[in-house]
Amino acid sequence: MKTEDILTIEESGENRINLVRDRLFWQAWNRSAFLFATHIKNYQVHKRFVQKVSQEVAWLGFPKNALAEIEKIAKSKGWAFEQKSIDHIIISGVSQTTGYEEWWAGIVKKKPPPAEPDFPLIKNSKDSLLPAYKTAYDLCLHIHRATVKMPREFRYELGARVRDRAADIVENLHLMANNVQTKFELADCAAKVHKLRIDIRLLKDLLQIGIKQWGFLNSQIENLLNLLRAEFCNANPRIAGATQKQSSGTLTTGQPESNRNSQ
């Protein structure tokens, strides 16, 4: 079963355990894994970030020859054990259980092996815009992966607009890093990031991306805005103090304080 299909199943109900088959093993993912480990058996839990869905997932697994014991435990608790398909079993009737967030935070995620950066290198690798450029490029990749399989009515309108904006931000930062555009255009670049944030929120409210996926993309956008703020302050030291006082992601226009007071 595909990862996106498993996550869709997980979002459909909280008071049940979904078991999905992976060849010779059965698995429980996310909240199902939490309920399984709490009420049935505490198998080892794994956690990693899945690029395909742009979010972290957690799961536990057990061999198929242990399924009979799992069924026996579930029925002894008065829960229903229903095989919906050859790849999907539902254990329903599980009581409300708190502590999912603490359980999720306590899972140790294995660090992936170091890898070469998967983004194009800019000419001057020491340029201060490199962190913002890399963040924008990674964000662009995640957005393309998150929107590529949406229904046609979203993929070719709102989805296309989100992808285009993300690509525009990367292109602008690339040109600024190579001195093709001036760094004083950072404010325009930040404005595009804010428009992107609104579109990402629309996708979440229209149920085209999940809450965890939206949270991840939103955190990446906030990180990018922070990097742009820092670079804007470096390029405009006289108004750095005014920029740092702002609590939102907008960038100051650079208008002197005396001029604003006189208007």
Structure, described:
The radius of gyration is 23 Å and the shape is elongated. A 6-stranded antiparallel sheet has the order 3-4-2-1-6-5, with helices on both faces. The model is unreliable at 115-126 and 238-263 (pLDDT under 50). It has 2 domains: 3-105, MutS, DNA mismatch repair protein, domain I (3-Layer(aba) Sandwich), CATH 3.40.1170; 130-252, 23S rRNA-intervening sequence (de novo design (two linked rop proteins), Up-down Bundle), CATH 1.20.1440. It has helices at 3-11, 30-39, 67-76, 100-105, 130-147, 152-155, 158-177, 186-205, 211-235, 240-244, 257-262; strands spanning 16-22, 25-29, 45-50, 55-63, 80-85, 88-92. α5 (130-147) runs antiparallel to α7 (158-177), α7 (158-177) runs antiparallel to α8 and α8 (186-205) packs antiparallel against α9 (211-235). The relative contact order is 0.10. The protein has 263 residues and is an alpha+beta fold. It has 11 helices and 6 strands. The N and C termini lie far apart (63 Å). A hairpin with a 4-residue loop joins β3 and β4.
